[in-house]
Design a protein that fits this description.
- The chain contains five helices and four strands; from the N terminus they run E-H-E-H-H-H-E-E-H.
- It has a four-stranded mixed sheet.
- Helix 1 links the parallel strand 1 and strand 2.
- The N and C termini lie close together (8 Å).
- The model has no long low-confidence stretch (mean pLDDT 91).
Length: 113
C-alpha cells in the first residue's frame, strides 16, 4: 500500500485517519494542505475516484464565501477555483494509488489492507 493523507494539522478527522493507519502499522505520507496542496493531477485522480467534485467539497467549511463563489462559477472554471482555494475541500483525503476517499472512512480503508 502507498497511502497518502492530505489534510491539516488542526483537523480532527485527519488526526483520526492518521491514528487509524498508525495503529495498524501501515506507513503513510502526510501532506499538509496549508503548506502544499493537491496538484492538478492528484486532484483529478481523487475527483474521479470519489465520484466528482461535489463529493470533495466541505459544505460546512469556515470559508463559506469561497464555497458560494465556486458554486456560482462557470462549470469549466470550477476545478481551477477549487485548486486555488483548497481550504474548501473535505479532509482527510486519503489516497492509495488510484483509489481514494474523502472524509474519515475506515470501512473502505479495511478493504485496502
Amino acid at each position: 500500500m502507498n497511502i497518502q493523507i492530505f489534510g491539516t494539522r488542526k483537523c480532527f478527522e485527519t488526526k483520526k485517519a492518521e491514528r487509524y493507519f498508525k495503529e495498524r502499522g501501515v506507513k503513510y505520507q502526510f501532506i499538509d494542505l496549508k503548506e502544499k496542496g493537491l496538484s492538478k493531477g492528484e486532484y483529478q485522480s481523487v475527483r474521479q475516484a470519489v465520484g466528482g467534485r461535489d463529493a470533495m467539497l466541505c459544505t460546512d467549511c469556515r470559508d463559506q464565501d469561497t464555497l458560494l463563489l465556486i458554486k456560482y462559477t462557470a462549470e469549466e472554471d470550477k476545478d481551477e477555483k477549487i485548486l486555488e482555494n483548497q481550504q474548501v475541500l473535505k479532509t482527510p483525503i486519503v489516497r492509495n494509488g488510484k483509489m481514494a476517499t474523502v472524509g474519515y472512512q475506515p470501512e473502505i480503508w479495511k478493504g485496502w489492507e
